Amino acid sequence: MKLAAALVSCALCVTAATGGAWLSRPADVDYGPVLAASADRYAVLDDEGEPARWYVTGAANGTAVSGTNTASDSAVTRIPADSDTAPASPWKITVAYSLDGPNVDAATVSGASGLVGIYIDVQPATDEADKSIPVVAFTVPTQVAGDISADKGVSLATQGSDTVVAAAGKSGSGLSFSCYMNAKDFTMSAVALASLPVSNGESGNGTSASGSDAAQLAATAATLVDSLTDAGSGEHQQLVDQLKALRDNERKLDQSVVAERKAAHKQTFEGYMAAYVGSYTNHLSGSIGTSTQLPALMGTAGELSGDTPLAQAVIDLANAVNNVSAAHMHAGAVDALDEVIRRIQQQGTTGLIDDLTAEAAEEATKGSKQYSEGQSQLSAAMIPYSMKYTDVYTANLSALTGGTSSGASAYAQQAIAETNGSADLKDAQSKVDAAMGTLAAACEHTGKSQALKQIVLRFSDQFEGGDSADAAQNGSGDNASGNTGSTTAPDSAKTSKDGGSGNTGAGQAEAIDESRALAGLVDPQSRSFYGRTKVADAKRKAQAALKQAEAAKQQQSRDANASLVDDTMSMSAGDVMSYANGLTSALGGGKSSGNSGASASGDASAAGQSGQSQSNASGSTGTDDGASTASGKSGQSGDAADDTDSAPVLFGFDKGGTLLTHDMSTLISETVELGDAGTLIAQAITQLGASAPQSSTGDPRYLLVIPTV
């Protein structure tokens, strides 16, 4: 073993020394020709105010690289910020904050309430600043601050639910301004800084607004994400329509099922309280008084378990609680569908399977944890509620009977009716309602998890990677390559859809698979161990997903509007006695409240997971829910589980090693942010009017996104 380790170390050293592909840094690329032909330059800054990379597109003098004037047709090149030939912004921007007077950092002002100040300072950084004008814009939600004051020359306008703050500086001298607001839970958008060229110090040359440098900068920003994904191609409209139909159905179910189960829960809750005080009434003796009679309550506590009407009422109430909570899973499904539709419309389906699978696991964990917390919260709330209810009931019953227990049962229903409407229960009821809200929110997370899993399973063949893997598996080339958008992507990315089969079709499918897997990798990476393992991993995952999705797709074909969630839960009697045991303990009998609470909470959580696991088994067998990982996997074949969750054996590293993967989510997020910033700058230019440049020079223009709170 030591000898093998030494040989590997020597091999790595030799590789580094000889400029091998593994460890050597690729030679710096001369981006001069690319920059000379570019007109639009974009970057998202990090926490230190520096870009990690630049996106450059378009061409000087209004001539696109592809030979057209259409911004969306222009090539996009990503340039590392540390490259010797990377561009530099003409302007340096600083954003500062204050809270009730003193300056603070972004973390302190985020979510704060009080007098918030925002200070923007833009200063020249290169000689290009002498021939360009900085335009700054950001938004503040009107619900955060409806009244904002700003320095002279700063434009404030309401756009939808946001206030747009915009200002334009002067060439060579920059821009500085401040604005203040009385904020509640402060937040704001990122700051967009556009550097727009001017000719001979003039702010315009008669060009129409739609053909100005600002308009071209914004238009190209809107299509940047298409350079990384297949968004905007129209390829996914059928998928989006299907998802919208499912969303509409889930929204209807959310309204109808929640309303129905809320009514059932209210009736069951009142039935439980009636059974509770009915038992209590049977144990009353002598003079009743105007507060709870503890001997009678002790007798009632003895009926909370066993084969009694009160014990059955406890179980009925627990099931009603679970059912009304689980109804909110449909709201989680609506949220999931909204998110996926928005993601596909903005970013296409690139990387969607991995992202949704990871998010589903996170949502399942949140739901499981929060549901357990909600059960404990409800248990804690029901004890004081029951005690207060008994106090009020006893006083009402005493008034009806003249203070004696003799014949009290005849007045029980009248006393219950008066107690149900009593204002004295308001505080205790609010704690029960808060616990029910926690359970509902937990089920929204669980519903979102189930929906995301079902979306992946039902529509995996329409996501990037799923269809190409199917083609490779069947030796068919019936896939469109989409738009990889990278200037360094292999030529095979442009293979067209021809429906061929046999060796030629298989070769085309293989090329498409590879080009999609390598989209976004630069040449030295795409031909390396790193790039090739990415291709292998993409194929493996896609093929495993196809196997797991077969049952879900069959269900989808049978009922296109079938719900994405299973909104049922059930518990055994032993799992729902938490607050009953707690009440017994509070009165001095039975288990200690600490042990019973912990035990019941744990049992209830397990039962909840059991119910959810059963639900998931019927809908998404290939995924896990929170703590039920082991049970989730037991429902699927060993091959499918191993194929999905473990890396293939690569060069003898076996399963102990880690597979190198390429995550495009950062690049996609950046381009989406830049697209949003482009839209914001377009609004700002219109808002600022003549004070902002309206020229069309063809000179380099810049758009920077500065993260804020």
From TrEMBL:
Low complexity bias: start-end ranges: 593-620
Coiled coil region boundaries: none
Cleavable signal peptide: 1-16
Span list, region Disordered: 467-508, 588-645
Keywords assigned: Signal
Superkingdom of origin: Bacteria
Biased composition (Polar residues): 471-490, 621-637
Protein name as it appears in the record: Tubuliform spidroin
Lineage: Bacteria, Bacillati, Actinomycetota, Actinomycetes, Bifidobacteriales
